[in-house]
Every structure is written in structure tokens, then in C-alpha cells.
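Please fill in the sequence for the structure shown.

STRUCTURE ENCODING:
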């Protein structure tokens, strides 16, 4: 409470009680109950709960989240609105009671998320959250909305055969390497430059991808695409989004004819190699693996998502969602920024800024 410097506390309390009675409010004296209260304990176990739902957080979603917070004895320290035009994202800073683990509370929030279609993430509110320096993305169905092998297959007239192989892989009849090898073999004899030129000309970027990558760059993050797809497309995605690194598979091309041989060249980007490349880039950039963020949608992204400090399953397959702690199901990649504490107002300012030297 604020009062004039020379005003007596008793007078302030009297005036406050009178004002409250006029509007039907009751003042409670908490001096006795607060006397022995341990405020240090109350502010321990701090976590940040981020809630995102487009176009607006529904009243039922918010009610369930607040109900779960209250029923579990969780103290809300602060509530911040991260979105500007609509109430699409809120950030709660909370302290959990000693007898409630963050994993247990996160499990409760997963149920709310599934029931109402809201994305809810719980992270520890510590310095580590603000020390992330590298963001790595999958490409197909993450940065772009297509699967590159499917686009190549359509152009090569082998879409049906590729689809059959993909379905066999999903049934577990083929591993990632075997599936890739079989599909690439079907492209044999086609002109590589022509195929990739057509695919690159028709890329559909995921909503929010450009905004996210622009903001990350302005904030000083290093960014990379690590794809089980193919390098010419990954390099085009890198160019358009301004990413620092691009890794993907290379299709072997006959130097004389310019035709695809039906084989790959060099190391294949398997799920394990994705994880290794994440660690390698982090090492090159001089940061710990805990200072990284990984975003992906497929089963081949799981090792990378688990290795990163913040692994986000973006509009992911059910299997990936089940084993991921953090999920985004709103079809807007810029919502990743909410999870690292960046408000929409800050995003707009970052997007509007002109980089030095330009």
C-alpha cells in the first residue's frame, strides 16, 4: 500500500475499510497469519508455464489451467501477456509446493492441452533458460510444409512406389536407411538440376518460419537446418531464412550426363547423425548442449529433441508427441519465441529493425 509520507497508517486503514464497504468488499487483517510465513519457501521451486492457443486462449482452457494451479497448491508469482492483439499467449511464473514435482504437474497440463487444444509448456525459471544460443530445425514438415522426397517422386512419376515404401517404413518393415535407399533408387535416370529447380521454385514455408528465424538472428542466436532430405533444397531453405548451417543428404549425380544415379553420396543423415550434428555445431559455436533448442516433427528427430536443452515437437507425429516434453500444435513456428520468453511486441520490434550495415 502507498500512502502520504506523514499520513498515519491507522487513518489509511480506516479510509480503506470505508471505501471497500461502499462497493461491497471485505478487508481481512493478515498480520497474524503472515507473521510466521516463510516467504523464501513460497518463492522457491520457480517455474514458467507458457500457454498458447490460436486465435485466442479459450475461457475453458484458462479455467482448467487455473483450476489445476489452485488445486495443487501452486503459487502464482506473476502473469504476463505475451501476445498483443489477441490473448493468444500467457506466461505464468509460479512456485511449486515441495510435494509436487514438475513432471507430475506437466503430466496434468498435457491432459488439459489434449482436451482443449492449447499448447502448454513448463520450464524451470532459472538462468539456463536465458542462456540458449543455438536453434536447430528439421526441414520437411517443419520449416517447410512439404516432404521433399514426395515432391521429387511426383516430378519423377514414381509417387505411388515411394508412398508404398514410406508406409512400409511406418509399419516398421524398413529402417530409416533402408527406406531412404529404396526411395532414392527410384529417382535414377532423372535430371538432377531440373528436378531440384522445380522443387525449390514451389517450396511452401511454414507460417511464422521467416519471422522466427529473423528474430532469432537479431537476438544473436545461431541457427541450422539438419534434414534427412536433400542438400540442394536445404541450402535454398538456408538462403531464404538466413540460417547459419545446412546439413542434409546428397544425391549422387553422374558428372557426364547430369542424371541421378539412384544412390546417395557421403554420410547419410540418420536420426543418430542428427543428434551428433547438433552436438558438433554446439561445440563449434562454443556452447553446451543444454544451451541448444531443437525443433522437429518426425521419429527421426527424437534423438535430437531429447539431446537439446529445449526439444520442441512441432505439429509432430503422435509417437513424437508422446515422448516429447515440449509440444507446439499451433501451425505457426513463431510461437517457438513464446517458449523462450519473447513477447509478440518484442518480435515486431525485432522484425522491423534494420540490421547494422544494411
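FILLED IN BY: designer on duty
SEQUENCE:
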Amino acid at each position: 500500500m502507498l500512502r502520504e509520507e506523514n499520513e498515519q497508517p491507522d487513518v489509511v486503514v480506516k479510509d480503506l475499510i470505508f471505501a471497500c464497504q461502499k462497493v461491497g468488499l471485505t478487508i481481512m487483517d493478515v498480520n497474524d497469519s503472515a507473521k510466521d510465513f516463510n516467504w523464501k519457501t513460497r518463492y522457491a521451486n520457480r517455474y514458467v508455464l507458457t500457454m498458447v492457443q490460436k486465435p485466442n486462449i479459450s475461457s475453458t482452457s484458462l479455467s482448467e489451467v487455473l483450476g489445476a494451479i489452485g488445486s495443487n497448491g501452486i503459487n502464482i508469482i506473476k502473469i504476463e501477456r505475451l501476445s498483443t492483439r489477441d490473448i493468444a499467449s500467457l506466461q505464468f511464473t509460479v512456485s511449486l509446493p515441495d510435494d509436487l514435482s514438475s513432471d507430475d504437474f506437466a503430466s496434468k497440463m498435457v491432459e488439459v492441452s489434449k482436451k482443449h487444444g492449447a499448447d502448454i509448456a513448463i520450464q524451470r525459471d532459472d538462468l539456463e533458460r536465458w542462456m540458449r544460443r543455438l536453434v536447430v530445425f528439421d526441414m520437411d514438415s517443419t520449416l517447410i510444409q512439404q516432404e521433399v522426397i514426395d515432391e521429387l517422386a511426383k516430378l519423377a512419376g514414381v509417387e505411388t512406389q515411394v508412398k508404398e515404401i514410406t508406409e512400409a517404413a511406418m509399419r516398421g518393415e524398413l529402417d530409416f536407411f533402408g527406406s531412404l535407399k529404396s526411395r532414392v533408387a527410384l529417382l535414377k535416370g532423372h535430371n538432377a538440376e531440373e528436378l531440384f529447380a522445380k522443387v525449390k521454385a514451389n517450396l511452401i514455408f511454414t507460417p511464422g518460419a521467416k519471422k522466427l528465424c529473423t528474430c532469432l538472428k537479431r537476438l544473436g542466436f545461431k541457427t541450422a537446418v539438419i534434414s534427412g532430405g536433400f542438400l540442394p533444397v536445404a541450402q535454398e531453405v538456408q538462403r531464404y531464412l538466413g540460417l547459419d548451417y545446412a546439413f542434409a543428404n546428397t544425391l549422387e549425380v553422374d558428372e557426364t550426363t547430369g542424371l541421378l544415379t539412384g544412390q546417395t553420396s557421403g554420410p547419410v543423415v540418420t536420426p543418430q547423425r542428427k543428434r551428433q550434428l547438433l552436438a558438433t555445431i554446439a561445440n563449434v559455436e562454443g556452447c553446451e548442449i543444454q544451451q541448444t533448442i531443437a525443433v522437429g516433427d518426425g521419429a527421426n528427430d527424437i534423438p535430437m529433441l531429447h539431446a537439446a536443452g529445449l526439444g520442441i515437437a512441432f505439429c509432430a507425429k503422435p509417437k513424437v508427441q508422446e515422448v516429447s516434453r515440449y509440444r507446439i500444435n499451433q501451425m505457426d513456428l513463431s510461437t517457438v519465441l513464446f517458449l523462450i520468453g519473447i513477447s509478440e511486441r518484442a518480435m515486431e520490434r525485432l522484425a522491423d529493425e534494420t540490421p547494422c550495415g544494411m
